[in-house]
Amino acid sequence: MTKREKRVKKLFQNPKTVPFKELDWVLKDFGFKMRQPGSGSSHYVYTKGKSQISVPFRRPFVKEVYVKRIIELIGEEYEKKS
Question: Where are the domains of the chain?
């Protein structure tokens, strides 16, 4: 099992305890481009084609609602590759 597979598996198994860095790695592995926040914002915007999601930087873990939305975005693509 590769590191990528382990990260995605962790994301799917427990969306409540996903650090921002892990989420960032997974999204970049799936081809999303990151745009950093500007002028006082904490939201990072990830885009791929017409898909877009805004994720606020939060420690220690990203809120579950954002992780579930990302699972929806990458879920179909991940299943196709598996």
Answer: 3-81
